[in-house]
Design a protein that fits this description.
Elements: E1 13-18, E2 29-35, E3 40-46, H1 52-57, E4 63-71, E5 74-77, H2 80-101, E6 114-124, E7 133-145, E8 153-168, H3 173-184, H4 190-195, H5 198-201, E9 202-204, H6 207-216, E10 229-232, E11 239-242, H7 250-259, H8 262-265, H9 269-283, H10 300-313, H11 315-323, H12 329-341, H13 345-353, H14 362-372
Parallel strand pairs: 9-11
Antiparallel strand pairs: 1-2, 1-8, 2-3, 3-4, 4-5, 5-6, 6-7, 7-8, 10-11
Helix pairs in contact: 3-7, 3-9, 7-9, 9-10, 10-11, 10-14, 11-12, 13-14
């Protein structure tokens, strides 16, 4: 138990949690979720800065960590430390209730909460990616309630579930960069590692900052609802601004692009697909193999083509080409495809995917994938 926001470790997935229907209306509770294996997990809960002064007055920190055990598709926490935390919080609340019932000038009788049950139930969404998690605090706390006449009577302070749901929090650009260099560092030129400044070049913007960037680029405010990120080339180096509420994978995609070679970027839509695949791999949950984010809503067609290329020709050809670790790597990739599927195949593959900004049709992607299939 400690104060201050909890930093996420490499295999912890951060979620921003709200009571159902309260997203955007209240400050979130932040949790770190770490599935260690099929039977064990760890949850860290940061109840928020707004509660820190009050918690400090009663001797508690705002961040707690517990081990969780699996029960089918759900994890649960039953821990004496959780019970103790709930008891301290609810006793402070009960003392306030009892004090309010005492006539002015009279001393308040002793008051203490009786925690009859304190359990956390954690349900991650099923599937190959971290998309949603539900946290239920199932609490039963009683106390001796003062009466207008006669002795206090046992009453429930709470006997219900407190439910929170949340989606993964976007990773900070510097954290994404560390994951990328850990996963692909052998393929990234040292000069690129030195020149890339993720915290400077990619910004998780608030509403005001994103709106200011739109004005600088002479884009309409309506664009705020249409695009997830914009590149401001008026700054040196150029800066990518990610709008609030953009899909949480956006920072991972944009930071991965910083490491891409200019030559591979010039290949067109294949560049977007490979970027998406590598970003997914770089930030994946190492314990479970799950994607940290659901990358599927964006660049789905380009991603399917990129996966086909990776599956058919291997990362030892594609990663040097993407990161530019070898000056002839793109030619080596092109030659490998052409040797297997005929002269000019790689160029036709790129043409079908598109060398410009437009998203290719599904029919063209299907043709492109069939063209390079070994």
């Amino acid at each position: 138990m400690w104060s201050g926001p909890a930093p996420a470790a490499a295999d912890e997935v951060a979620y921003l949690m709200y009571a159902p229907g309260n997203k955007g209306k209240t400050e979130p509770i932040r949790i770190l979720w770490d599935e260690l294996d099929d039977a064990n997990a760890r949850i860290t809960i940061d109840v928020g800065e707004q509660f820190e002064p009050w918690l400090k007055r009663i001797g508690l920190g705002r961040v707690v960590k517990y081990d969780a055990k699996a029960n089918k598709q759900q994890f649960f926490v039953r821990d004496p430390q959780l019970t103790s935390y709930v008891k301290t919080v609810t006793t402070a609340i009960v003392q306030g209730i009892v004090q309010a019932s005492v006539p002015p000038g009279e001393p308040a009788p002793p008051a203490e909460a009786d925690v009859k049950g304190a359990t956390l139930l954690i349900t991650p969404a099923p599937g190959p990616a971290h998309t949603m998690i539900e946290l239920i605090a199932r609490l039963h706390v009683a106390y001796l309630a003062p009466q207008k006449s006669g002795p206090p009577r046992l009453a429930d302070l709470i006997n219900s579930d407190l439910t929170f749901v949340g989606e993964p929090e976007a990773m900070a650009p510097d954290d994404v960069a560390r994951s990328i260099e850990k996963m692909f560092g052998g393929y990234i030129p040292e000069a690129k590692k030195t020149s890339v400044k993720p915290g400077v070049q990619v910004k998780l913007a608030d509403e005001a900052t994103f709106a200011a960037a739109l004005r600088r680029m002479r884009l309409s405010q309506a664009a705020n609802a249409q695009i997830d990120a914009i590149l401001d080339r008026s700054q040196s180096p150029p800066v990518v601004y990610i709008r609030p509420d953009a899909p949480p994978y956006t920072s991972a995609h944009e930071v991965t692009q910083l490491y891409q070679s200019d030559a591979f970027r010039a290949l067109g839509r294949l560049s977007r697909g490979v970027t998406h695949v590598l970003a997914d791999q770089a930030v994946a949950d190492r314990n479970t193999g799950k994607s940290r984010f659901d990358f599927s809503p964006s660049y789905a067609r380009e991603t399917s083509a990129a996966r086909a290329l990776l599956d058919g020709y291997g990362r030892e050809l594609i990663l040097p080409a993407y990161f530019g670790s070898e000056p002839t790597a793109i030619k080596a990739l092109s030659d490998a495809v052409d040797r297997r599927r005929g002269r000019g195949t790689f160029d036709r593959f790129l043409d079908l995917l598109g060398r410009g900004e437009g998203t290719p049709s599904q029919a063209r992607v299907d043709q492109a994938v069939a063209l390079i299939k070994p």
